[in-house]
């Protein structure tokens, strides 16, 4: 499976649009998903499945994580989505995004179905990952069991639009505070619940879309919050959102340099050559095992995003 690959930006692409699929190939996103769910009208689903199989097999995706969002399990389409796409292009597919997951049974169903298709078609069993979308109150309540329901789970994905509708939140603008609520962040509990569940299960936490595609400042504000909390990435709906989201979910250069320097300095100071110390100084800062763990997170995100160091630490020479 695709473990810790960077998922800073994940582009939503309607599976029914040849034009948008073609355009997606050239965008600098870490991941894309070809959608069979809400972006595709009921009468266009069958044709979109075939188009998606063709697009995956054609390739040209340049190392991006390749995903397909199938329909939710409260429809009649899901099994046919999975069978058509995985039988037709399973070797060219990294994960399936499963929307409106409200119970771990949904994930188990997909895991078992994938295993069947993989066995029947000679694909490596277990390689295709699952990204459950948390989009209602039941899903949030069951989130720990959902995250643990299959070793294929690679990320938990917040679906803010469906989620806000499901809890009757009095707002139509995804990510912005509902008018009348002025004592905090109305999304804090939901976002933290998803993040903690993802971290406890060792999988990634991904924020959903920001729908005002022309409002890049609003995107920066809303996405900046989830990036600051520790989410790994966010969906994008339009080319205009890509750069902002990649930037928000990459460490700043100075933080990346600092993190790598903490790791190097700490390794040297704890080694025999550096005096085998448990805590040490890096400039004016004391670093210890806990600093190393924090630095590993930032360095890991920077490395996954392909960043390079500009200011490497060197051991003292005397
Ligand atoms: C995405 O699927 C959402 O509901 O926000
Ligand atoms: Mg949704």
UniProtKB/TrEMBL annotation:
InterPro entries assigned: Aldolase/citrate-lyase_domain, Citrate_lyase_beta/mcl1/mcl2, Pyrv/PenolPyrv_kinase-like_dom, Pyrv_kinase-like_dom_sf
Entry keyword set: Lyase, Magnesium, Metal-binding
Cofactor: Mg(2+)
GO molecular function, one term: lyase activity
Segments forming domain HpcH/HpaI aldolase/citrate lyase: 8-239
Signal peptide: none
PANTHER family, per database record: CITRATE LYASE SUBUNIT BETA, LYASE BETA SUBUNIT, PUTATIVE (AFU_ORTHOLOGUE AFUA_4G13030)-RELATED
Name this protein carries in UniProt: CoA ester lyase
Species whose genome carries this gene: Saccharopolyspora oryzae
Lineage: Bacteria, Bacillati, Actinomycetota, Actinomycetes, Pseudonocardiales
